[in-house]
Amino acid sequence: DADVTQTPRNRITKTGKRIMLECSQTKGHDRMYWYRQDPGLGLRLIYYSFDVKDINKGEISDGYSVSRQAQAKFSLSLESAIPNQTALYFCATSGRGTDTQYFGPGTRLTVL
Amino acid sequence: LAKTTQPISMDSYEGQEVNITCSHNNIATNDYITWYQQFPSQGPRFIIQGYKTKVTNEVASLFIPADRKSSTLSLPRVSLSDTAVYYCLVGDSWGKLQFGAGTQVVVTP
Questions:
Q1: Residues A45/A36, Cβ–Cβ less than 8 Å
Q2: Which residues of B are less than 8 Å from A50 in CB distance?
Q3: pLDDT in tens, B45-65
Q4: Interface probe, candidates A100, A107, A109, A110, chain B, greatest B C-beta count within 10 A
Q5: First and final CA of chain B: distance in angstroms?
Q6: C-alpha angle with apex B51: B48 to B42, nearest 5 degrees?
Q7: Any CB–CB contact under 8 A between A104 and chain B?
Q8: pLDDT one-digit tens code per residue, A23-68
Q9: I need a surface site. Which of A5, B36, B97, B103 has the fewest CB within 10 A?
Q10: Phi and psi angles of residue A54, each rounded to the nearest 5 degrees, phi first
């Protein structure tokens, strides 16, 4: 969905490096989410935010941190990347009172 | 969050109807049933959502029996471009979704 953008789209990095993945949305939604997807598996929730002052851990938050800089921006950081964090990362948004989520195009991250 | 169970894969030919059934025995009163479609290396895309009975849109139909312990996504007259992974999810308006492994649908000529 072009209303949800992610940068970068692809990134290769080395173990121990700090990485930030960024997500922006123009849908005016309050809620934003970060997921990771490993090959052949469904998406797993890392962190979610229901508004600018609200941050919540998801199913697999260890090794990750997030920042909600504004309603439209939600960043995911890997403080010290490790190889098992190699995955496809998706950002999503949803409006208040609904669980319909709109996903970005994804960031493919490879940690060597 | 209610857990869902759906077939791992389904094969179909072009022009046929594809029905994917999802089990969600522990669905809560406030939960809606939502289906997403995902193509390789793309984010999931919302297809349809329902609470009970039948919902139809331009893409699919969703059938939900009275006990709401299962639901069936119906894709009419599939084409090659319908080859994708389909996810069944249940959740409430709090917005937390739990994705399973989904159903890989493969459409062949």
A1: no
A2: 95
A3: 999 999 999 999 999 999 999
A4: A100
A5: 38
A6: 25
A7: yes
A8: 999 999 999 999 999 988 888 999 999 999 999 999 899 999 999 9
A9: A5
A10: -120, 120
